[in-house]
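Dear colleagues,

I hope this message finds you well. In preparation for our joint manuscript, I am sending the Hexosyltransferase (Climacteris rufus) sequence together with its predicted structure, so that both groups work from identical material. I would be grateful if you could confirm receipt.
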Amino acid sequence: MMLRRGFILFLPRLVGLLVVACCSMSIVYMLACTPKGDNQQLALPRVHSPTVKEGYEAILQEREEQHHNYIISLKKQIAQLKAELQGRTEQLKNMQNQYPESLDIWLDHSNPEKAQANLLAFLRSQVDKAEVHSGVKLSTEYAAVPFESFTLQKVYQLETGLTRHPEEKPVRKDKRDELIEVIELAVGSLNKPEGVGKGKPRVYTASDFVEGIYRTEKNKGTLYELTFKGDTKHQFKKIVLFRPFGPVMKVKNENVNMADTLINVIVPLAKRASKFRQFMQNFREMGIQQDGRIHLTVVYFGKEQMNEVKSILENTSKSANFKNFTFIQLNEEFSRGKGLDVGARFWKGNNVVLFFCDVDIYFTAEFLNSCRLNTQPGKKVFYPVLFSQYNPSIIYGHHDSIPSLEQQLIIKKETGFWRDFGFGMTCQYRSDFINIGGFDLDIKGWGGEDVHLYRKYLHSNLMVIRTPVRGLFHLWHEKQCLDELTPEQYKMCMQSKAMNEASHGQLGMLVFKQEIETHLNRQKLSSKKT
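The corresponding structure tokens are as follows:
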């Protein structure tokens, strides 16, 4: 009886709870199912509204458009997935053709030791295919994959776009993390004892890192060459690492002693005594005072201004107590290739690094070390990409005065560009130059001889190191393209002349200078009237 009375009292409460629950469910359903626009929820038209039909039709039309756009998006995604699937299928077929054995058999999971050995063999084969231990023959100068250089602070990358200007954008985080990982791995490798040595081993840190170069070959992997400070001023540690689309592998760990490595700087010259005086100031500071392991060979054509050039050379010799120079005079028309070839063959000492240079080049002591570190007799030649300076009178035309030369040598897109179409400044051992056959002496005048030599090296088994360097600059000078040049040489000369003047934006400002001034004058007049 008591239970029946309690149930009767509880029943109204239960009914009330069910009513509340039903109302809540209805509200939630309306909120969830009401169609929404791009920015706000669409309100349902009131039942008694005169536009109820039009409102519902508008809602239905909008929903239909949304579904239509969604279907189009899905179709695009399906097409992209099909294309990607087809590409992956082609890659798998190529891999199966290259490795006819089944991948499961090759990496036998039932035998972990064999699988690991097979994987290691594959990675080693990737190292052998890449240009790590030796160069490979290439068909054209465009087939060479250039290196990019980096320090702890910056990465120097070639801009492959039409403007050929250095990009001043931050290095992507993944690239920065990759290079930090490589430096840390190299430091760890240097600090890892490789045998019982005498005394306490030196502890290397990232601050000992001097510079590095790297390049990625898409079907092989990434090659890194890192240089660290050695035990003395002229000693270095060089670490070569390779990432064959997997873990980084140590390829080589060697001591590099450059204390006795002499560089013979060969400069062909005709007239241009004032430029030679500027060159000798740079040579004295960087080559004689800071480096000290250097020889200068000047090959002079003709006799005009020759005495002035010889006087500059002798004065530098006396004031700097420098005797390591050679002056060769040729009574014939100027030919850059002939001058460099004669200067290289004139050397009678031991095998030496040759640096083919021009009188309008500025180099640093750090570059001379890069020249030594990236050349190896019978194995490597160095083709640095230098930074070419724009016309200072255009760059600093709006300034009160043009800054000093040292202040102008800044790598920025407003001040110059990577001269990646030039192959004239190069370092190689004399033995490699002689064995390759030297320059083509049939080429006269300006241009062509450097590309011909570069192609010879590419067609050989020597490794060509091509990378932008921060310590080699081409100083601006007015270029004269003579009528005696062949049509091809004249075209190359004019292209080089146009590239040397200013950036695309700066040249545009000059072209539209009058239009800009007219606009500014109109602005002044309108401001006065108001």
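For the figure legend, we might mention the following. Residues 141-190+206-257 form one domain. The longest helix spans residues 52-98.

With kind regards,
E.M.
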